[in-house]
Amino acid sequence: MLTLFHHPLFATCRFIRLVFGEYGEEIALIEEKPWTRRKEFLALNPAGTLPVLLAEGDVPIVGAMTIAEYLDETRGVLKRDRRLFAEDPMDRAEIRRLVDWYLTKTESEVSRHLVRERVLKPLMPEALGGGSPDSGAIRAARSNIRQHMKYTNWLAGTRHWLAGARITYADLAAAASISVLDYLGEVDWRDHPAAREWYTRVKSRPSFRPLLSDRVRGLSPVSHYADLDF
Amino acid sequence: MLTLFHHPLFATCRFIRLVFGEYGEEIALIEEKPWTRRKEFLALNPAGTLPVLLAEGDVPIVGAMTIAEYLDETRGVLKRDRRLFAEDPMDRAEIRRLVDWYLTKTESEVSRHLVRERVLKPLMPEALGGGSPDSGAIRAARSNIRQHMKYTNWLAGTRHWLAGARITYADLAAAASISVLDYLGEVDWRDHPAAREWYTRVKSRPSFRPLLSDRVRGLSPVSHYADLDF
Predict the structure, then answer these.
(1) In order of start, what are the domains of chain B with their CATH numbers?
(2) Interface check B47 vs A, CB under 8 A
(3) Do A89 and B73 touch (CB under 8 A)?
(4) Complex ipTM, two decimals?
């Protein structure tokens, strides 16, 4: 069984857990607090970022998209119509664009700030950056959410799955990203019916179940978080 | 001929120009100022980021690594020992890790800030974020450079090319990133002899020539920038 170093509320880590879930492969999870800069973890990934997969032979594979590409090359290609990636280079580029949108753009404009201010800072020692949440950073992140939900709503209303006719990495990355915001009660679903219908579909998949039972210390999810008919 | 929307001092764009150069394929360049949020450009890439490649059939391919993957799938696989990527999934993961290091980590910790403060802000209208450079941001970025040069020096001293025995995307991404800092005179080469020897090797390749004649308005490169024996 392979091992994933992860944090339960990082979208990048949730994305990889979903990929393993879809492929029906169990993994061992180790929760890492990257801000502690643990020596043994930095030896695996000098960048100190999550996720890190210990792959075959305990070789560390670093970063969400790099792990996803590795899993496609070593698993996906054998999955036929259950493959989460496309065959055609243009279709692959579109899937990669969307994964990058949710795991880099949404992350840097919205999720990273909300998770840091609302989840991590209250738990972190002051010397490592802990303390009271910065309400300005929370406000800025919240004002960006709408744009990302609007785009998701547009994609979900235009295509059956976000990158086309089949479920792909794009859906798993987007759902991973949005699920973190949903845990925090930051998503206003009323204005985005197509996104809501699509998210319900992803959320109902067996691969999603472990994410719906994730809990972080000091902060329970909103009441509808694990509800499949919200 | 394909078209690349780029900015001459963005490492992500330089990386793609190097890839085309190595494969001996000419491209048309269109310089884009993404902060103007030009409507026609946003239609190609709603994220408003660079680089964007207009590929076959004028389909936009968005983002440096996504373009690099596309070029590998449509060109690289045919290049045999001139391919800039590896065959083995683990080797591919290591190349992707390093590309991400230089184009995401170095970018967000160093290059983005120095380019914004020293190159773009003096040229940008105040309404779009222009104005005097923020000396605090410059200082913070500068204090991060050393770590990236130290890591590059370690890689270059341990391996012949940064990801192993052959030149790959990892070298082109790293050299693209460092070349921007070198243009700005921000690299102290004396302390990093292995990185210097490696960079001289990359810089001497024909694919690098167009980058060495790049100039941005209002800011000439340091005197050794285009010198192959610096």
Answers:
(1) 2-81 (3.40.30.10), 89-205 (1.20.1050.10)
(2) yes
(3) yes
(4) 0.95
